[in-house]
Amino acid sequence: MKKTILIVGAIVVIILLAGIYKFNFTNDDIYVKDPEGKSIPIDEAKDISKNTDSKEFKTKTGKIIIITETHPVGQSISSITITTKGFKENKLIELSDIDPIEKIELKDLDNDGFDEIYLFTRSVGSGSGGDFYVYGSDKDDRLMEYEKEKLDEKEYLKGGRLEGYMGHDTYFFDKQMLVMEFPIYKENDANLKPTGGTKKVYYMLNQSKFKIKKIAG
């Protein structure tokens, strides 16, 4: 009886995965084709299907934002989908091949009465650099991505304002600004022992765009 139940259970799992994966039967093992066309054991496919995290956020105006993160087992990148409820236009937003999410926060940084949602990401590895993505509600009409001013690559070179940057940055809010803080590494510093102090990049939100207000430190 137990053996019959186990067999039926295995068949059900195969049927549930059939909509996503194409199956190949080789000797005594069951292999499937993942979405990229690679052959992988069915046990790994089940792990991939489970490696998804979804969180729901409610803005102060009562709108719902759902963030779903999926990343393949053994890989250091994520795919993000953002769905909404209660907006005049509820449109799916997708982000592919980005660093894993470290934290998510709601904040009305420009005091317009509508929350933005902030996705802070962090790369995997010794440098573990951070980044951020921001979506505003456009006065609750729809969710839209806010642009951010990018730092010139020259700023990271010798003599630049961000000389000595090697990752390990953190993000936090200071009054009405978003702050990126990071340690400064001198030439012979070990990875976890920076000796150059810290620097901060201050971003201010203005008309749906993040602009660098100042760099201090």
Describe the SSE topology.
Layout: H1 2-17, E1 22-26, E2 29-33, E3 39-41, H2 42-50, E4 52-58, E5 64-70, E6 78-85, E7 93-98, E8 101-107, E9 116-122, E10 130-136, E11 144-145, E12 147-148, E13 170-174, E14 177-183, E15 198-206, E16 209-216
Parallel strand pairs: 12-16
Antiparallel strand pairs: 1-2, 2-3, 4-5, 5-6, 6-7, 8-9, 9-10, 10-11, 13-14, 14-15, 15-16
Q: Any overview of this molecule?
A:
This protein has 217 residues and is mainly β. The protein has two helices and 16 strands. A five-stranded mixed sheet has the order 12-16-15-14-13, with no helix packed on it. Strands 4-5-6-7 form a four-stranded antiparallel sheet. The longest helix has 16 residues. The N terminus is likely disordered.
Short description:
This protein is mostly beta strands. It contains 2 helices and 16 strands. It has helices spanning 2-17, 42-50, and strands at residues 22-26, 29-33, 39-41, 52-58, 64-70, 78-85, 93-98, 101-107, 116-122, 130-136, 144-145, 147-148, 170-174, 177-183, 198-206, 209-216.
Features:
about 220 residues, mainly beta, 5-stranded mixed beta sheet, 4-stranded antiparallel beta sheet, 2 helices, globular, disordered N terminus
Spell the H/E element sequence. HEEEHEEEEEEEEEEEEE
Portion of residues in beta strands equals: 35-45%
- Structural class, by secondary structure, is mainly beta
Helix count, per DSSP?
Answer: 2
- Global shape: globular
Instruction: Please summarize the sheet with the most strands.
Output: 5 strands, mixed
Could you tell me the mean pLDDT? 83
Low-confidence region ranges:
2-8, 11-28
For the largest sheet, list the strands in their spatial order.
12-16-15-14-13
**What's the count of strands?**
16
Taking all Cα atoms into account, the compactness measure Rg is: 22 Å
Estimated helix fraction: 10-25%
N-to-C CA distance: 71 Å
